[in-house]
Amino acid sequence: MIKKIIPILIPILFISCNTNTYKEPTLTVIATPEINGNDQTSIGEKIIIDIDCQTNCDVNLTNIVISYEVDGEYVTKLDSGMNSAGLSVKKTYYQDAREDAEWTVKIMDRDRNFVSQTFDVKGNPDSQYGPIEEYKGIRIAMQDVLDDNSWFCGPTGYSVPRDSGSWYQDDIDILCYFKYSVNNGVNMPSPTLSSPGETATPSGELYDEFYPELKEWTNRNYTAYDITVNNGVTNENYANCHSDSLLIHCYDDANGKRKYKWVTAGLYIPFLNAKGQHGIIHVTDADTTAGGFVEFDMKIQRYSGE
């Protein structure tokens, strides 16, 4: 149930406008959970947040934080920097608790003045975790391999040959490539997991050097990989995972990034794809050559087709 949005304005600490009269940014937040007949939001249902914030001064906006609180526990879903006079964005999250939650959108400007709004989402205490698909022995090729499977479709569980990618672009959400990347000052071999939508526009080495055919695709799905070092996934709980509980709770939205570098055997990598499916990749092998492969198992939420 969405309650009335209550604006909270933190006292202004600095004066930066030319008129010497500070006016706080204008913040509008509209939240639209998927609510069932009991005005409750079940686990796995979407929470869509439309955010618009415009400065009314000459001080740019520099940070946005989206978080929620359940029974005294605070969870950060987004903590991102910027440098802009305005922000207009739509974010989609997925209910991961049965309890009621208070969500907060907070935006800071360059002088560390804050404006925030809150809204409540009523949880469904009777909601259940959902089914998953379990895939084994997936193998996809790096960029120099032209005659093997280069793409993976999470919704269907199929690997797709390099020359057939455009036919399956609506479902392709995982690819890999090899390069060297700097880690703590050392240039190291880096098998990398990414997706066709690694960047909002098709520019950079993924599109110019590794997979130039992506520039011709009309749908480039984006997958976010959780780069948290300790994500809580173990050999035991992964083996015993047969619902989407672990998949939902091991993924940290705030640490979901556009690629996962330095992929090695044994890693468990939580992810969230463009169709809203949470999953876990268990890497079993990763070559350190552009002519090699990455091999992995996967558990992923069952796709409903909606």
Detailed description of the structure:
By secondary structure, this protein is mainly beta. 6% of the residues lie in helices and 45% in strands. It is built from 3 helices and 18 strands. It has helices spanning 205-210, 235-239, 245-250, and strands at 6-9, 26-33, 46-54, 61-70, 73-84, 86-94, 101-109, 114-121, 132-141, 149-153, 158-161, 172-183, 186-194, 224-226, 256-257, 268-272, 278-286, 293-301. A 6-stranded antiparallel sheet has the order 9-18-17-16-14-15. A hairpin with a 4-residue loop joins β10 and β11. The longest helix has 6 residues, at 205-210. The radius of gyration is 21 Å and the shape is globular. The model is unreliable at 1-16 (pLDDT under 50).
What attributes characterize this protein structure?
306 residues, mainly beta, 5-stranded antiparallel sheet, 3 helices
